[in-house]
Amino acid sequence: MTEEPNRLVLGEDTALVLIDLQTGILGLPTAKPSAGVLKQGIALAEAFRAHRLPVVLVKVAWSPDGGDLPTANVDRPGPAAAPPAAFSEIPAELAALGDVVVTKRHWGAFTGTELDLQLRRRGIHRIVLGGISTSVGVESTARTAWELSYDLVFPEDATADIDADSHAHTFGKIFPRIGKVSTTDEVIAALGS
To answer: What is the pLDDT of residues 81-123, one digit of tens each?
Structure first.
């Protein structure tokens, strides 16, 4: 599908992938309110479903014994124990029957999951990607998606970070080099074009 420069066109080869819009992450102190990001995520998901396009909800979770928690010698380690199961629950107002749910155990949604398989078997070549947090789960997923040759669209208002500077850096320096920065309204309008 050809598109005019700077005009966003989203066809049947497009999927929505939302990262970590789950109870435990939505409760973190993000730089812009997570409730707004969830609202935009819901609007995007409803629009994709209305156009019969895949909605992929990615959540992070670990085994109750914590045996699959990432281990590394780092200055700022992640959780030392697996959070309770409720941490990984996707809000009922976001999820719908027919959505693809992927559970990740690392920052990026492709590492150790079936995300690539689920997208390719559905003929997906373009991903609209949002969620929390911009500089961790969303950016890690985006970098791998770009390396796997997916076209990427980033609705900034459907994405948030705990740190405002990190969000600004990712959207100002990284995402424009690997995809198109957009808004929820622009994505929804492009679905109907």
So the answer is: 889 989 999 999 999 999 999 999 999 999 999 999 999 999 9
Cα 133 from Cα 2, distance rounded (Å):
31
Please give the Cα distance from 38 to 150 (Å, whole number). 24
Of the pLDDT bands very low, low, confident and very high (cuts 50, 70, 90), residue 4 is low
Contacts of 110 (CB under 8 A, 6+ apart): 116, 141, 144, 145, 148
* 3-state SS string for the chain: CCCCCCCCCCCCCEEEEEECCCHHHHCCCCCCCHHHHHHHHHHHHHHHHHCCCCEEEEEECCCCCCCCCCCCCCCCCCCCCCCCHHHHCCCCCCCCCCCEEEEECCCCCCCCCCHHHHHHCCCCCEEEEEEECHHHHHHHHHHHHHHCCCEEEEEHHHEECCCHHHHHHHHHHHHHHHCEEECHHHHHHHHCC
Q: How do residues 36-76 score in pLDDT, each as one tens digit?
A: 999 999 999 999 999 999 999 999 999 999 888 888 788 98
Question: What pLDDT, on a 0 to 100 scale, did the predictor assign at position 183?
Answer: 98
- Separation between Cα atoms, residue 146 and residue 57, nearest integer Å: 19
Distance CA 13, CA 127 (A): 9
The Cα 192–Cα 100 span in angstroms is: 22
